[in-house]
Amino acid sequence: MKNKIIQFSIFIGLLFSIQANATPLKNIELSGLSTIPNSTVLSYLSFEVGDEITDYTSDQIIKTLFATGFFADIGVSINNDIVAITLIENPHIKYIDVLNYSDKVLDVDKLEKSIDDYKLTIGGLYTKKKLHDFLESLKSQYNAEGFFNLEIEQNLDLDSQNRMGIELDITEGERATIGSMGITGAHSFSEEELLDLFGIGVADNIFINYFTEKNRFTDLELNKGVAAMQAFYLNKGYLDFNIIQVDTSLSDDREKINIEIQISEGKQYKLGTVSFQGDLKNQKAEALVQLLGIKKGDIFNRQKVVDGIQKIANIYTDQGYAHANVSPITQDVSNTVNLIIDISLKKKVYINRITISGNTRTQDEVIRREIGISEGGLYSRTAIVNSITKLRRIGYFSDVQITTNELPDFPDKIDLHFSVQETKTGELSFGISHSNNYGISLNAGIKEKNFLGSGNTLNAQLKFSDSYNKISFFFENPYFNTKQHSISYGAFMSSLDDNDVMTDSYKIDTVGANLGYGVPLTENTRLNGSLQFSKNDITCGSSFATSDYESSQCASTSNDEVSININWNENTLNHYMYPTNGRSNALSVDLSLPLGDYRYIIANASHKSYKPLNNNLTLKLTGNLGLATGYGGKELPFFKRYFGGGSGSVRGFGSKTLGPLYPNGKAKGGELSVLASANIISPTPFIDNSDNMRMSAFVDMGNVYGSTSSVDLGDLRMSAGFAFAYMSPIGAIGMYVATPLLKKSGDDIENFAFSLGTGF
């Protein structure tokens, strides 16, 4: 009781002491302000004239005003009940220039965002802390990319109006390379096998490393490799796998980095029993187990389980259960893992509204017809994913995104919003060109696969040269009716005076028309047919009409042609311009009918596939097989033969120079064409804003043969090289550099080729 009385007495004494020191404020005087109004400063203070002040008032003022960020220094004095506040304002930023940085780490957009994030924009307040934090951010970004010798020189310019100019001069130095890299703690797999999972490492091949830069260190690639190794072990059943430590050390000159990764494998598990709980609705447990792709007794594979769970979820989301939750529960039993799959479906969800934005040219109905789900219909995840793929595949848009919005008051309804970004879908050309085949040409034309945003195709061309003239028109409506049938029609007139074989070799005047119709077979396949009539007037020179050249075909000067074309194609590519996954297959047959003067059949098969190798590299494989022959005792028209070499064939050899030759060494063409190509495609890493650019390394192989009986694999040609493609604002630009690997004496070599089209 005595202690409480003492404590209470002390408290009362302190209270009276504070009250004794508190006096009413007579005035507040501010000095040192140049840009900030007095009223702004006073508004931050928690007292005003007439309020009582204490010995703690000075500390409160300094703390409050420093918190605003407006001031570099603050002084406070209290005399005769007057508070005098002396202020030094922080300068405003006059400019901020970052010099000599490259796109190896920074680009303009990333730099501007960083400047904005740290509030160092022009007109903002400068503080030492802001600049320090910004510089630390830059250093962190460079270090993450392996630039450890970074130097940033600061040049600060404070003018008489208290405005600060900031100039930062960057010296990047060289990116650190990997001196050594090792993994310890592995027993089930070799160190070499594990290191192959990393995109970075010690350079073991100077030539390959020149292109891949595998020995260039970045935090991102190291972390991706660690994640890949972790996934590798989990997919091999090592569920207790653990990364114990990742040690990195720099050499004294900070240009080499040594990496040592310590792991613990743990034991390997197998899959035990698989059971389900929750509401399976119309599905049988046995059928759902099959979707896992893994059975009891198999080594536990986490990725297969994850993929299987997604397949099970898709079964229900495609039935309208948009919020279906399929969750795996694991139970460890000795060296096995029992799997319990919990299924919670909730309510079915219906599509309320479908909205579209970004289509500045393409009509809404053109987009909606590619969307395989309708307003009022049940939600289907597969239908939505397929819709996005189809929109990306048609070639009208460079990007397609979708967002879903739930309706707060209607848990069984959802809105879908498709956002598209238009891309160039056509070419408008007018100019003068030169080719080895036709000499100087004057040409004009339009190629548009999305004419006036309607989704229709329009191609029209005019071409005039010394040896080749052509006028053509083609139109196609890919959605002629509600069943997605297509209709097309066209007309053409051409005159070819080919002097490439010899002077006054032959001349062909052709006029014709065609009509086509197509029907879908499945989601990704179509069957198209067309009927074409043409009239060919052929005039041959005396030398060309001899037995060594084309005497039999030159004997008839006027030939009518009636032909049908049947074409089947399959397309699962994930993008029109720059696919990274999927395939495109096509089979076509051209048959000339006995209604005309010709008797021939031409069959072509083509394959194109894309497979991602990693985030940047894509493997593209192509193959083409063409067979043409006459029937009914008649020859294949000589102008229908295959020719090889150049773009679209075996690059590195001159256009139309491969295959059988006439006695004078000029290309005759053949009835069999065999072509194949392997390409590794990547974005262009050393150019800013290179989304519309691609570069590739390729190997081409093939040739043209006179007939199937004349095939000799020893006559195959092969080349290798590099190609570049750019969808520029003025059109598509392409070029390649190639060198033959398999060639014959007398081959026409073309190491470089360039093409340009004007787009709109």
Describe the structure.
This protein is of the alpha+beta class and 760 residues long. Among the domains are: 22-89, Ubiquitin-like (UB roll), CATH 3.10.20; 92-171, membrane protein fhac (Ubiquitin-like (UB roll)); 177-264, membrane protein fhac (Ubiquitin-like (UB roll)), CATH 3.10.20; 270-344, membrane protein fhac (Ubiquitin-like (UB roll)), CATH 3.10.20; 350-422, membrane protein fhac (Ubiquitin-like (UB roll)), CATH 3.10.20.310. Helix content is 18%, strand content 42%. It contains 13 helices and 33 strands. The N and C termini lie far apart (94 Å). Mean pLDDT is 87; it is low at 8-20 and 433-439.
Q: Could you say what the CATH architecture of the domain at 177-264 is?
A: Roll
Helix-and-strand structural type: alpha+beta
N-to-C CA distance = 94 Å
Number of strands: 33
Rg over CA atoms: 37 Å
Low-confidence segments? 8-20, 433-439
Portion of residues in beta strands equals 35-45%
Helical segment tally? Answer: 13
How would you describe the shape?
Answer: globular
